[in-house]
Amino acid sequence: MLEKEEVTFEEFLDLEGNVYKVKGVSQDKVMTMDSHTHNYVKGYFKRHTLKTDGGCVVATYNAQICTICGTVLVGTLYSTSTYTVCPH
Ligand SMILES: [Zn+2]
Ligand SMILES: [Zn+2]
Question: Where are the domains of the chain?
Answer without folding.
Answer: 6-83
